[in-house]
Design goal:
It is a single chain. The protein is mainly α. About 40% of the residues lie in helices and about 10% in strands. It contains eight helices and three strands; from the N terminus they run αβααββααααα. Strands 1-3-2 form a three-stranded mixed sheet, with no helix packed on it. The protein is extended, with a radius of gyration of 28 Å. The model has no long low-confidence stretch (mean pLDDT about 80).
Length: about 200
């Protein structure tokens, strides 16, 4: 007995609907236990003047793969000026490109936002900054007294971290203003960064 394509498709759809109904009626999976919160590990040093160093293998990294990075970067990432790899608090890889070295200042621009967000997140987690939705004009008015203009009091820390404060900023004009008001020689190290 031959079945038509429509009959086969109809039966297949019926079987799929039955499975869907059975799946919907099944009990939810048991909840996974939530691990107890733990304190961050104690640090025995902070990299202030220099990073502590280690061989990549001492930190569980493949030295062969790291050794091949230079050629890959020079081929595929010609705009990259430096690459440093920190593992478990130790510097395990450090390479410079395009005439840069460890002594040359480098304009980090928006990278600062990532670090600032991480620091605020850590402060929020520890309770030092209990509410990132705190506004400059209410909860933080003591810290920003005298700096706020009309309408800026409703800006929150979250707005600032997300670069969504609504404030207009002309980067070029700012740098020109800074350069015009700086004493002679103060900005000389920054000229290398091509900001001015």
């Amino acid at each position: 007995m031959r079945h038509s394509v429509h009959q086969i498709v109809g039966r297949l759809i019926a079987v799929l609907v039955a499975f869907a109904v059975l799946a919907a009626c099944a009990a939810p999976p048991p909840a996974l236990p939530t691990p107890a919160p733990s304190d961050p590990p104690a640090r025995d040093y902070w990299p202030t003047a220099a990073w502590r160093t280690a061989l990549p293998a001492e930190r569980g990294l493949d030295e062969t793969r790291l050794a091949g990075l230079r050629a890959e970067i020079e081929r595929d990432l010609p705009f990259l000026d430096s690459l440093l790899v920190i593992k478990d608090g130790d510097l395990v890889y450090e390479e410079y490109f395009n005439g840069h070295d460890a002594t040359r200042l480098h304009h980090v621009a928006s990278v600062t936002k990532s670090f600032m967000s991480a620091l605020v997140g850590m402060a929020n987690g520890s309770g030092a900054i209990p509410n990132i939705d705190a506004t400059l004009g209410r909860e933080l008015r003591d810290q920003f007294a005298g700096f706020l203009k009309r309408g800026q009091g409703d800006i929150s820390l979250r707005h600032l971290l997300q670069m969504r404060s609504g404030l207009s900023f002309d980067e070029g004009a700012f740098y020109e203003e800074v350069a015009a008001g700086a004493p002679d020689g103060v900005l000389d190290p920054l000229k290398e960064l091509e900001w001015f």
